[in-house]
Amino acid sequence: MSKPMTFPQLKGLENVLLNLYRERECQHKQWGEQNHPDGTGGKRAELDAEDARSRCEYVFAAGGGTWRHLLAEEVAEAFAETDPAKLRAELIQVAALACQWVEAIDRRQSKGKPRG
Fold this sequence. Notes:
Blueprint: H1 7-31, H2 43-61, H3 67-80, H4 84-110
Helix pairs in contact: 1-4, 2-3, 3-4
């Protein structure tokens, strides 16, 4: 099990969540409440999820894994899910991973490192 987040990590997450909140405010102002069909599931989506998972495992085992690979896998898994509770859980994973990626970008920028 990993260690709890440190204060600097929590501050970074807080900043990302504030940015997300502001973006959601903008979306709501522009479009109002949105209610669309999920459009998930199906054999093609299941195959895409399997492919994304295999690709992610392969590139990480070879030492070339990136945030893009991780996020693509999580999004593909969400697209394959039809059960509303499971879909919600997958989308939370997508959002959490996207937050982690933004935090990593912010850390690199604060340390003067080039983007990944």
